[in-house]
Amino acid sequence: MISPVTPIGIEALSLYAPPFYLDLDDLGKARGVDPRKYRVGLAQDEMAMCPPDEDAVTMGAAAAAAALRQVDASKIGVVMLATESGIDQSKAGAIYIHGLLDLPRACWCFELKQACCSSTMGLHTALALVAQRPDRKVLVVASDIARYGLGTPGEPTQGAGAVAMVISAEPRLVAFDTAVGSYTADEMDFWRPNYLREAQVDGKHSIRVYLEALEHAWRDYREQGGAPYASLDRFCYHLPFNKMGQKAHQHLARISHGEAPQAGMAEAQAYGRRIGNTYTASLYVGLASLLETDPEDLTGRRIGFFSYGSGCMGSFFSGRVMPGYREALDAERHHRLLHDRHRLSIGTYEAWHRHDLPEDGSDYETPRVSDGPFRLAGIRDHQRQYERVETAPAASDLAEAETEVALADA
Ligand code: COA
């Protein structure tokens, strides 16, 4: 049996990407690399860049605020934040988001970690919590800043952004099947020790173990009663860079002795091409991209999902698109969000990349750069100060602030 009796799934799905990006042609020029390596070889065009006054909490809160506008927020009983860009070793980032959004006090809030697939562990946990108490809605937020060193092979596969999903017994977008395939193996393909700001990655090894995890999780999914390959209509893969999804798609077809259908593949990768890697959010950025840009009516179609988290863990699962899903999409907002971004110069990108909050405990006021709905105003007495932005800075202020930060950090 692959479908639960009561459908449980995604009622609302919203994204947030910071209002700045680096065009990978500019990066190619600066690094002396043929830009086709990025656009064709990695299948990436741009990458979103987090300004100095945003972090995983502000991005997550922005995505969550948009998702909650579409549901009865008073029913939210659990908030989870899946992230690899945590801001504290003890207090959950979910509590900051809960506070910024003024959610009900009768609520659990916690943070999840297992590289890029902790959002999927959040999703599976949310499905179980809603099955237990169908009157409750669960807010799963995935928010990350993908950072690799300047000039390293990982540099063109950075990005930043967040996804918020409201999981409930009133799914308007996707209802999930019960079969879930799992896989874990102790691997060192990608990790970030506490004392480093940038991830360590053995990129070639990560591609190999990603494909191994896919194969094992897929076989387990089938053993758990998951749908046969031929009955999956669309596919969403975790996308550290889009080419990885294409490699995964070919691999899954090969081990399933099938053809790799191309319908929906470009659509599922359209947003990721422009936002870049968002770690925990990436798979669900792909889902939003697919639902919002696929020209076909996907009602009733089954989507296969593969979630991968380095270290490593994989999960294969599936779900069906709900009737009327198009009315429940946040597509217009997402298109505006991507369209209205500012293109960074390579100088500002590098200055922001080097910029960091003080680590010696001193107070700090963050320059005002972002025009997102929430910002990190600074640090006082070791406490991050967040604020809701009532009016966005004018474009001229923005340009000035960009320059200021660039100069201060040059
Ligand atoms: N035109 C078109 N394609 C080109 C090209 C050009 N001028 N130059 C290179 N390419 C292609 C290569 O053939 C290769 O494609 P293939 O993998 O299909 O063969 C691709 O571009 C990448 O080139 P490669 O030489 O392998 O790149 P790299 O050594 O610089 O590293 C990654 C690429 C992906 C390994 C690196 O960016 C990385 O480690 N990223 C992080 C990955 C990650 O986050 N992993 C953990 C989570 S899963």
Compact description:
The protein is built from 12 helices and 17 strands. The chain has 410 residues and is α+β, with helices and mostly antiparallel strands.
Strand content: 15-25%
CATH-defined architecture: 3-Layer(aba) Sandwich
CATH hierarchy class name: Alpha Beta
CATH superfamily caption: Thiolase/Chalcone synthase
User: Which radius of gyration do the C-alpha atoms yield?
Assistant: 20 Å
Low-confidence residue ranges: none
Number of strands: 17
Structural class: alpha+beta
Describe the structure.
The strands form four sheets. This protein has a nine-stranded mixed β-sheet, with helices on both faces. The chain has a three-stranded mixed β-sheet with strand order 3-2-14. The protein has a three-stranded antiparallel β-sheet with strand order 15-16-17, covered by helices on one side. By secondary structure, the protein is an alpha+beta fold. Strand 9 (190-191) and strand 10 (200-201) form a beta hairpin. Helix 3 packs across helix 4 and helix 6 packs across helix 7. It is globular and about 55 Å long. It has a single domain (9-339), classed as Peroxisomal Thiolase, Chain A, domain 1. It contains twelve helices and 17 strands. It has helices at residues 24-31, 35-41, 56-68, 93-100, 118-132, 203-223, 242-255, 265-275, 282-293, 331-339, 346-354, 395-409, and strands spanning 9-16, 20-23, 46-48, 76-82, 108-112, 137-146, 159-168, 174-184, 190-191, 200-201, 234-237, 302-309, 313-321, 342-343, 364-365, 374-380, 383-388. The protein is 35% helix and 24% strand. Coenzyme A (COA) binds at residues 34, 36-37, 40-42, 153-154, 157, 189-190, 201, 203-204, 206, 210, 240-241, 243, 308, 310.
